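Dear colleague,

Following up on yesterday's call, I've attached the two folding results inline so they're easy to grep. Please treat them as preliminary; we haven't cross-checked anything against experimental data yet. The first protein's sequence and structure tokens come first.
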Amino acid sequence: MSIIEKAIRKVRKFEEDRPEDVTVTQVASETSVQTDITGEETDNSASIPKRPQPKPGTALAFTDGLRESGYLAPEEQLQRTIDEYRRIKRPVIENAFGKSSHLINKGRQIVITSSIPAEGKSYTSLNLALSLARERDYSVLLIDADVTKARVSHIFGLEDLPGLMDILQDNSRDASGCLMPTDLENLSILPAGQKTDHNTELLSSETMQQLLDSLLAEDSNRIVLLDAPPLLSTPEAVIVSGYAGQVLLVVEAVNTPKNVVDQALKSLDIGDDKALGFVLNKTHRSIGFDYYGYYDDYGRE
């Protein structure tokens, strides 16, 4: 059975088993991610408070930024969400650094995407970055590769600062000078940068590959997370996913149609040398830890 067939079978099984009267306001299960947030679910950046552009040399208040923008779980759900992301990040780390039986090629490059907008993929990117940054042994770079929406950049007031697209347009630009430090010692952000009329061509260029290679070479313990666009919204998502050894597909369990997930999975170029994981959010019941997992020739469901 192929990777895609395994993934589709898992999603279909959950969809077939769910009750018809489930609503999206129900509490997340133990192994899913709750994303009842204004910004991500409405897909409307105007609903997120405008943050001032940070002063030069100032570290971004990462956790405060998430909280003020509605991207951090409320206090009564916070510990549960922290535990969920601890579960999510463990296979990510194992595949990135070869702590499992197989080392994933380009495993330190992880793309977070979804099938369609408003499924919670930026929420997942941000909270996974936060959880990974709490590790003692690794550093984390979160790249805003959703250059059209630039959700991550908007949350921290970075939308007018040079970033990914500026580097790709001018490969003489120092990439390290575009990285924004945060108040978490192990976490930095690369903003999306200025939009262009040829985003797709820039993202598919050799300069993009060289940039990722150099960012990883700078720090052998660095994990690079790329918050990518939804797969069915723009060809840019498939291009960005091609650079990563691990792809996390965020699926809104209740509202995303099965055929949409099927189409998104089929658009991915997931070979035997890559890992595909799911983050199933807005679930109404526990479906077991094995729902979040990787699907490949040596993986286990």
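Below is the second protein, in the same order (sequence, then structure):
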Amino acid sequence: MRKRVREVEKRRPLSRRIVALALLFALLGPLCRTEATAAGNGPERPLRGFSGLTVQEETAADWQASVDRCMRTGEWRRDLIEVAKTQLGYCESSTDTREINGVNCSYTRYGDFMDSTESVVYGPWCASFVSFCLYYAGVAMPLSSGCSAMIRKLVDVGYYRPAGEYDPRPGDLIFFYSGLERDAEKLNSGHMGIIVEIRNGVITTIEGGRQIVMYFQHDMAKEGNRILGYAEIPDNPNYRTVTDEEGLVSVSGILPEGVMVRTSRLTRAQVAPLMQEEVLCCAYEVALMLDGKKYEPKRPVSVYLHQEGLDAEGARVIQMIGYEEGREPKLCPLYYIRADEQGVSFVTCFMSGFAAMRPAPPLPDETEGQEKSAAAEADKGARTLI
């Protein structure tokens, strides 16, 4: 697929714009198309000639900026979900519209991303939305502006899974039947989305194509017969996880072969200036080592601290620098913090010191303690009398 961007016309007073556009079409007509390269790593597109006064002022640089709000580690499922979340709330245009096959259709960045053909730029866009997210998440999967066409491509590469034969996971794609048709062998899909969560028989998705990008929930007990199938997102072959020798810390990401994790314990005194009324669970200085030298990852990585009890309410994990003796340590931001019964994971851009803590247990009430002591003395006296 050729990647393209459109040229953006600078805003002008209305009369000047009308004159300029009239001259443009009179002189250049259908030749007003050229080539341009997008900033960053966004798509490249042939520039579309203006067909009216309403011009969408978006380029591939804008598309890239819209997804740069999330941190991508190279774990394709997670990255796909995070990229999709950056698009929540995006609406199709209410002013830049075209009539296609008797239907009034609106411009979207997702159709524009996929193709310069009017029927795609202004056409149904749920598959184009998913393709946009796959591309910017770096997932090596086929892209398409049509749901059924995408299924056929997925069948060819072995990633399509019929409903009833596969248990989907967050990060997979979901396909719905077209209209009232329920013939699974025809592979005709009329809508699709990205699965972000599966809980208690309810699949939560992020979907486009319905005027706005938003969350949807599908109750399997009620809507299971609408689901045609899924696309299993593969693991990134370049994504690997390495753990230190003691099994204290794991680091996952796009890491070179041979990289190792080195950990050393930090003292409470080094962490204390950043602690509140908390119990220190663990504190490590973590470094990645390659060929005997420190290695800094080229992109964000996911770190997992193996420590029980961090899923308790109020538990906290921090990253810090400048924690040498006699210095005041400084906090650094962490992203996507998630705790479970065995530890806590988060995303960071570099290695340094990490600490995890939980709230200190409340001190016994002084009055309550006195009452318990008095009761104990009374009980002792009673037993003495007996």
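For the second protein, one point worth flagging: The chain has three domains: 1-48, 69-237, 239-359.

Best wishes,
A.L.
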